[in-house]
Amino acid sequence: MPPAIPYKLAVLVFIENAVGEQLLMLRAKPPNLGVWSPIGGKLELATGESPFECAIRETREETGLELTTADLHLFAMIAEKAYEGESHWLMFLFRVHPPITYLPPDITEGRFGFHSRAALDLLPLPATDRTALWPIFDQYRDRFVALRADCAPGAPLKVEIEQITPA
Length: 167
Hints:
Elements: E1 7-16, E2 22-27, E3 36-37, E4 39-42, H1 51-63, E5 72-83, E6 87-96, E7 110-115, H2 127-140, E8 145-150, E9 158-164
Parallel strand pairs: 1-6, 5-8
Antiparallel strand pairs: 1-2, 1-4, 2-3, 2-7, 5-6, 8-9
């Protein structure tokens, strides 16, 4: 039997400005050091934090933007097996409905920038973001989809849809 690897729960929060550009952070710490990604973080399991509570907290901590659950749309849940061979992740992807009106200041986790969706193809992104998360955002951001992804090192990324809400 292979050794067990930890299972982590996290959120990613997709925030846009008024012209539809994505707010991304150039990460200054692992994971994803040196690449652009949406804001987010791990759920505080010891307190029983929900994915919505985590998205609100992470958004406030990283950008200063104050949200309520009504501002969030949960558009995807993705189970990643063996991400970078180090852990499994269950991630909840949220889209924020009110646009952000300012560029947040730099924080210890990284610096922020607004990028058009087309510009993302030219930026350094995590491999799974480029091949899976952004296509999921493009297709399902106004609906809901549940997916699983096999991210085992050395194997091609395989993403399977488990459920989609009707259009």
